[in-house]
Amino acid sequence: MSRLRLPASMESFGLFRSFVLEELERTGELDDLVPKVDLVLEEVLVNAIHYAYPGAHGELEVECLSESPGKFRVTVKDWGIAFNPLDQAPPDLSSDVSSRQVGGLGIFFVTQMTERLHYEYRDGGNVLTMWFQKNGGN
Amino acid sequence: MELKNQKQDKFFIVEVSGRMDAISAPEFEKSCLEWIQQGESTLLVDLAGLEYMSSAGLRSILVVGKKLKSVGGSLSFSSLAPTVAHVFSISNFASMFPVHESLEKALGNS
């Protein structure tokens, strides 16, 4: 398992991304998961960077692991305000430009592009674990 | 992300390449709003060179789409790569905006 802990800021975003994608590419056979992992990671990290520590500084920690053949796991932790992404209302998916609400798609993509998601508030922090399965769904 | 633009007949064509993510999407939004401000109202966004789009990209597209709608303009897209097409599809953006297979078809279709 590899782990990286950095300040919760957009400056860290590229470093977290390289860290996870390099780990995923090292597993070789999981190459085809790159687009999904890339997207889900951005949605989760940007969300945490923007909302976990309102008006304050904090850190994020990302862990990743090739769990078994074809299965990759990513865990994102923060120690900010409690936020369960699995509890959010579904996004507005209507096709009318004028009335459609802006936003809410990030979490939706996370739910659509992972095989499984698990959230818990543990030891004073949010812990979101995401599993990606080769050739699974979407 | 790189943006190029050109005028062809009534179309103001914006070619976007690279990645449209939380870092680059605001630049796309700002540029489009400036072009609209300058009087362009028929935007055709060609995504042939775009390899990645996140919800931040869609957010900017929706802002631009709403602005164009309010001035009686239009926003359409062409040449989506499979990963971008997937994001358009599950977010229902593919029903909200006209999406053409290629730039040529988009120009010929209206």
Which percent range describes the beta-strand content of chain B? Answer: 25-35%
Strand order of the largest sheet of chain A: 1-2-3-5-4
Question: Main sheet of chain A, how many strands, which sense, barrel?
Answer: 5 strands, antiparallel
What gap, in angstroms, lies between the N and C termini of chain B? 28 Å
Molecular shape of chain B: globular
Mean pLDDT of chain A: 93
What's the pLDDT, averaged over the residues of chain B?
A: 96
Stretches of chain A where pLDDT falls below 50 for ≥5 residues? Answer: none
Low-confidence stretches of chain B: none
Q: With helices defined by DSSP (H or I, 4 residues minimum), what is the helix count of chain B?
A: 5
Give the assembly state of these chains.
heterodimer
Which term fits the overall shape of chain A? globular
Q: Major beta sheet of chain B, specifics?
A: 5 strands, mixed
Tell me what the structure shows.
The complex is a heterodimer of chains A (138) and B (110). Chain A is 32% helix and 29% strand. With 138 residues, chain A is α+β, with helices and mostly antiparallel strands. In chain A, strands 1-2-3-5-4 form a five-stranded antiparallel beta sheet, with helices on one face. Chain A starts with a strand and ends in a 5-residue tail after the last strand. Chain B is α/β, with parallel strands linked by helices. Chain B contains five helices and five strands, in the order ββαβαβααβα. In chain B, strands 1-2-3-4-5 form a five-stranded mixed beta sheet. The longest helix of chain B is centred in the middle third of the chain and has 16 residues, at 55-70. The A-B interface holds A 10, 13, 35, 38-39, 42-43, 46, 91, 93-98, 100, 102-103, 105-106, 108-109, 112, 138 and B 21-23, 52, 54-56, 58-59, 62-63, 65-66, 69-70, 83, 86-87, 90-92, 95-97.
